[in-house]
Each structure stands twice: as C-alpha cells, then as structure tokens.
Amino acid sequence: MQSNEGVDEVCVSIGEKFNRLSPLQSKCCIFRVHDQLRNVNEKAYEPEIIAVGPYHRSKITLQVMNKHKLHYFQLLLQRKNETMKKYVDAMRLLEEDTRKCYGELIGVNENELVEMMVLDGCFIVELIRKFEHIHLRDKHDPIFGMDWIVNSLQRDLMLFENQLPFFVLCKLFDMIEVPNHHHRFIYLALRFFRDLLPGVGHRKSFEGSSPENIKHLLGLIHNNWLPSFAGNDTSENFMAHKKKWQFIHCATELREAGIQFVKNEKCSLFDIKFDNGVMQIHPLIIEDRTETFFRNLIAYEQYGQDTDFRYVTDYVIFLDNLIDSPKDVDILCRRGIIDNWLGDGEVVSNIFNKITDAVTTPNNHFHYAEIFTKVNIHCNKRVNRWMAKLRRNYFNSPWGVISIAAAIILLLLTATQTLFTVVPKWASARN
After folding, report:
1. Which strands make up the sheet holding 260-263, listed edge to edge?
2. CA 423 to mean position of chain CA atoms
3. First-to-last CA distance in the chain?
4. Domain range holding 405?
5. Does any domain span residue 249?
6. pTM attached to this predicted model
7. Using CA atoms, how far apart are residues 54 and 119, in angstroms rounded to an integer?
8. Number of domains in the chain
9. Is 167 within the bounds of a domain?
10. Which domain of life is it from (predicted)?
11. Do 84 and 164 belong to one domain?
C-alpha cells in the first residue's frame, strides 16, 4: 500500500528494521548452539551449577553459585585492600568489545553486563588460582571441600555457551596477580582443565601462545589439545584432504579382515597410524563428562571458519566409524584402546553413534582420509575379503568352530581311508 504523500509503507517498515538491526560482527566467538545440534543431546550444552556470561544467567537452578561469586570477590578485595570500583571501571572499558563477542543480541544493559564481567571473571580467575595453590583457599570454602563441585565446575566452565571473552579474564588476572603475565594464566587454566582431557594431545609452548589468538577458555583448550600434525601442511594426512575417500567398517569387521588394533601411548590421541594391517591408536578414557567435552569442542569447530582446524570433529568421526555396537567397544577395551569408566559398552556405543548427528561432516578436508584409504585397500584385497567372510560365517561362534574342526577331521579321515585302500592295491599291482 502507498500513502497519498508517495511514501511506500513497506519501504518505511523495512527502513525501521534497518535502524534496529545490529551490524555484523567479525568478533563474534560465543554462540548459542543451533537447535539441530542441541536437540540431539541438550544437556551436553547446559551448565549444571554455574552460569557464566548472559546466556544462562536467569536459570533458577544456577543461582546458588552466585553467592560463591560474591564471596570470592569480597575476599579478593579484602586480601588486596582494594575498592570494587577499580574492577568495575576496568570492565566498563571492555564492555563494548565484550558485547560484540556474543553471537546474538543479549538482553542486558551496560551496567548488568559490567557486573557480570566483574563477578564471573573474578570468580574464574580466583578459582583457577586456588585450584593450583592450596594456600590461597579459605578453610571454609565448600567448593574445594567436595570433589563433585570442582568436577562440575570444570565441566561447566568449558561449555561453548558459558564463556567470557579471554581478554576479560586476562585483564582481571593482570589486576589480581601480576600484570602482563598472561602465559602464567594460560598455564594455570590448562592445569585446571587437565582432568577433563580424555587423552594426551600435542600442546603448544606457553611462550608461543598469544592471548590475542585465544577467544575464551574453550578456545584455549582447543588451541592446546592438538594432533602433532596440526598446522603442518606437508603432513601425509593434510595432503590427503583433497583425495576422494570412503568411510571404513567397524572394529568387528576390520578385525575379521585381519586388521590388528594396537595401543600406542607414544603419540597424541589424534595421531592414529595404520601400516601393514596394524592400526595404532592412543588410549581414550571415557567417563561421565567425556561426551559433553567432545560435543562442545565440536560445536566450537562447527562455528569456526577454518575447516582445517576441525581435529576433534574428524577424530570423533573416526571413532564413530570404528564403533557400531557394544561388541566393537569390547574389542577396543580388550586391546587397551578404550578405558571405559562408564562400565557399559552399550552406553559408549550409543554415545558415538549419535555424537555426529547434525554435525557437518568433512568433504575434502578430513585428517584421516589417507588412513581410511589404506584401510579400505587392505580390506578390499581378495584374500582379506575371503578371510573376513570365513571368520564371519564360520568362526563367529563356538559351534561354527566345532563344525569346521569336524569337517577337517572328517576330511583327514576320508583321505587316510583312501590312502590305506589305494596303497595296498598299488603295491599288489607292482608285485
């Protein structure tokens, strides 16, 4: 509809929306996980006891920890004999840049966001310092009096949606401990999260870690839990990215094809090797927090623009190929490759059967493409296909083995009987 003055009402409406539209931000690094990914396992992205930042702050079940945030900040001010205004003023200078880090419009005003930065940030920095240095802990602090609280905090503070920008934490660390010693904070933070890691990764040197390249605590973990070939464009795996590749069979079928699984503790978790029918894999610990840990790192990679850094996604896809059923889990457990703290092989197989649902899988960028190609070549050799079929059809049960043994014995007896029948006749004919 067009008004008498010649102004189109649709144009006016769109123009008003333009005025309310937030500009695109290249600094966005903290997102809400999209529904397709979240709906596979919503609890994996939800904090259990503490909210950090704006996304989960209104949840009633997380309000208890707010008291501990206040206690930590109060004790900090008393210990350093400082005013809270010093911290508020420092965070106010970072408020605008902090707001730009969130991927969607957050419903908090400037003062609310600054308060959140102060209380959440100081709590995180103090918690990480107290975790490493026992003498900093208050004797009445219930957080370090119960292991389950620390375990839950380790889990919650690495969630993709539950983050503060890393520059906020670095600024507060400057004020709380020593200015411009960010490498020490990186060291302390990685020590705090070390119990979460399900296996050893290749870590960058602290001297080479630039805080400017770290987005938040989850990003810090990702930057320092790497395969040894990370960033090495000449590696065999990297060169295989652009080759065509196909998925591999599960562990049970690969074993039937003559592939051996061997535990290799001399490399990082991601550095899987395959040669001459032997697959070497670093041991993987699976406990209550492992699925959440993997899912949030995968979400972080899904929102990143660099497809070459999706090491965790590629590794989980590899495991998803190996594990189809509890039988596959049992095979890997017996070989020492999976250390199953959950106790139930079916639970582990269900985790990996669903963990890549709604995840964008690699096309021409897959770090295990060369290994997959080698495995498939091995399995497609005629003798290996024949052996796999023989094992699957005749050696997969005790009765199958008995029937094969009986057939072999019958064949030997028949051959023996024939021999004893033919030899006398042949000897008589000679005479």
Report:
1. 260-263, 278-281, 273-275
2. 70
3. 120
4. 388-422
5. yes
6. 0.85
7. 12
8. 3
9. yes
10. Eukaryota
11. yes
CB 171 within 8 Å of CB 181: no
Residue for token pair 């091995």? 378
Rounded Cα distance, 35 and 257, in Å: 40
In a domain, residue 216? The reply is no
Task: Flag whether 15 is in a domain.
Answer: no
User: What residue type is 399 in one-letter code?
Assistant: W
Tell whether 120 and 97 lie within a shared domain.
yes
- From 129, 146, 178, the end of a domain falls on 178
431 residues of the chain, pLDDT tens digit each: 555 566 788 988 888 888 876 665 567 999 999 999 999 999 999 999 999 999 999 999 999 999 999 999 999 999 999 999 999 999 999 999 999 999 887 889 999 999 999 999 999 999 999 999 999 999 899 999 999 999 999 999 999 999 999 999 999 999 999 888 899 999 999 999 999 999 998 776 655 467 788 999 999 999 999 888 776 654 454 444 456 789 999 999 999 888 999 999 988 999 999 999 999 999 999 999 999 999 999 999 999 876 668 999 999 999 999 999 999 999 999 999 999 999 899 999 999 999 999 998 766 678 899 999 999 998 888 655 555 455 555 555 554 545 555 556 666 666 666 666 655 655 566 55
HSE-CB for 147 with a 13 A CA cutoff: 1
- Residues 29, 171, single domain; the answer is yes
Whether residues 33 and 170 fall in one domain: yes
Do residues 131 and 245 share a domain?
no
| In contact, 364 and 240? CB cutoff 8 Å | no
CB 325 within 8 A of CB 250: yes
The backbone torsions φ and ψ at residue 48, rounded to the nearest 5 degrees and listed phi first, read -95, -40
How many CB atoms lie under 10 A from the CB of residue 144?
A: 15
Q: What is the largest CA-CA distance in the chain?
A: 130
Residues in contact with 108: Cβ distance below 8 Å, sequence separation at least 6, in sequence order: 54, 57, 116
